[in-house]
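can u do me a favor
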């Protein structure tokens, strides 16, 4: 991870046995399950470390971390979660964990800022498609990205946002896979809302009433949050970008609204196609299809030729 930073919260001495793993390049997760210290290393895979953590060390580490973060961790608050730009930390108290207090420390990687050259070289899209994406943003056309969990949906969204003008205010709705638009684009006016922390549902309207964003970008993974995005975009004439996990376009909304009856789902689909007229389909190879919905017509803007 390079040089030791203030954001690591504790000193080298306070990390003790964990310190070499915290600093080692390639190690991205440490997990003490009460009996064994498991290390996840990108080069060596997942393995059990030879070191063991004493109860005294674990209890002291948990106390130091909870105090530095200003959060309670005890019988009344047995689950501790905290994160900053460097780490995600989770601790389970010995009162609820079978073999004593557990520690999970996951390093955060700074996301890559994709450029046109890297996308072309990796086969995500060709130069003509990149020109079309630039034009889409210039014309302020809202878009929906769909693809499997292994496709580069969020990566492509990060790329597209580089063409949003700096003066255009952006609100991002962050799901399980953070888009981190603000980190990658420090020159842009970005406000982040986290679905996992309950900062979105019911509050997006209030936030946007004051901020009045020009663009709303999200990968919330929840149908009710998507509906809230659509309502806010209509209310404030905002443009948007949405990531949905689905291999086919027809499955995108079924995955977001699994319990809706077909008639209501058809109305939701018509609304989302109106608000997000450009649909971009990806698979593990890259962009395979771009379509634009125009009322009852669908125009194919790009279709990858399969070998």
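np, heres the sequence
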């Amino acid at each position: 991870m390079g040089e030791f930073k203030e954001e690591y919260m504790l000193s080298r001495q306070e990390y003790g046995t964990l310190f070499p793993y915290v600093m080692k390049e390639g190690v991205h997760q440490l997990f003490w399950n009460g009996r064994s210290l498991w290390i996840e290393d990108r080069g060596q895979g997942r393995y059990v470390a030879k070191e063991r953590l004493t109860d005294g060390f674990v209890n002291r580490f948990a106390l130091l971390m909870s105090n530095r973060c200003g959060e309670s961790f005890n019988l009344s608050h047995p689950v501790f979660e905290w994160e900053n730009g460097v780490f995600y930390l989770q601790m389970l108290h010995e009162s609820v964990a079978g073999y004593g207090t557990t520690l999970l420390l996951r390093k955060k990687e700074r996301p890559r800022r994709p450029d046109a050259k890297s996308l072309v070289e990796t086969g995500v899209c060709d130069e003509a498609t990149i020109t079309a994406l630039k034009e889409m943003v210039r014309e302020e056309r809202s878009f929906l990205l769909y693809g499997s969990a292994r496709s580069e949906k969020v990566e492509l969204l990060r790329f597209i946002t580089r063409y949003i003008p700096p003066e255009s205010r952006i609100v991002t709705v962050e799901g399980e896979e953070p888009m981190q638009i603000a980190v990658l684009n420090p020159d842009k006016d970005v406000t982040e809302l986290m679905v996992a922390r309950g900062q979105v549902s019911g509050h997006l309207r209030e936030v946007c009433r004051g901020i009045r964003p020009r663009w709303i970008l999200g990968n919330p993974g929840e149908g009710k949050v998507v509906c809230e995005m659509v309502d806010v975009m209509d209310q404030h004439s905002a443009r948007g970008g949405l990531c949905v996990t689905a291999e086919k376009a027809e499955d995108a909304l079924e995955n977001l609204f699994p319990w809706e009856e077909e008639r209501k789902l058809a109305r939701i689909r018509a609304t989302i196609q109106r608000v997000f007229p450009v649909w971009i389909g990806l698979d593990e190879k890259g962009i395979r299809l771009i379509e634009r919905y125009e009322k009852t017509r669908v125009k194919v803007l790009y279709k990858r030729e399969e070998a």
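The two ends are 42 Å apart (CA to CA). hope that helps!!
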